[in-house]
Amino acid sequence: MKRMQLLFACLLLSAFTSMAHAADAYMGQFLYKYEGGNVYRVTVNDAKSMSWACIEGSEKGASGLEKPERFKVADKIYFATWVEKTGITVSQVINLKTMRVYSTIIDGIERYVLSGMVVREK
Predict the structure, then answer these.
(1) Between 21 and 86, the higher pLDDT residue
(2) What is the CATH number of the domain that holds 8?
(3) In sequence order, which residues have a C-beta less than 8 Å from that of residue 55 and are 6 or more positions away?
(4) Overall domain count for the chain
(5) pLDDT in tens, 66-79
(6) I want to staple 38 with a disulfide (CB 3.0 to 4.6 A). Which of 16, 57, 75, 103 is the partner?
(7) What is the residue-wise DSSP string for 31-90?
């Protein structure tokens, strides 16, 4: 299952690299509640940037301001990817129909595949 999610994310990235940024990218403030206990507050104010802060779990206190590549995959389903200033690469599928998030995080040779709930705050 985890390999399928990673494969799906990779296929989406390669399929949409020639498309423009999502013109109607999701906006607002969300909580990403990952299985395992980490909770991130994600704020998207425009199509070119987003901020995040871990408010619960092992990374509590970590935060960042990112400039993701973001694409609309289908109605209320988005793909986003970025490289953090630490060099960590993050790729996500955000499904606002089912309110789920699927993330792949690559830190050096380590890879983490996560899933969780999305809660809209604003």
Answers:
(1) 86
(2) 2.40.128.20
(3) 31, 39, 40, 41
(4) 1
(5) 999 999 999 999 99
(6) 57
(7) EEEETTS-EEEEEEEETTEEEEEEEESTTTT-EEEE--EEEEEETTEEEEEEE-TTS-EE
Q: How far apart are CA 42 and CA 58, in angstroms?
A: 17
Q: Which two tokens stand for residue 8?
A: 């799906």
Give the pLDDT band (50/70/90) at residue 1.
Answer: low
Rounded distance between C-alpha atoms, residue 90 and residue 12, angstroms? 14
Q: Which two tokens stand for residue 90?
A: 């993050």
Nearest to 24 by CA among 90, 89, 77, 81: 77
The boundaries of the domain holding residue 18 are 2-120
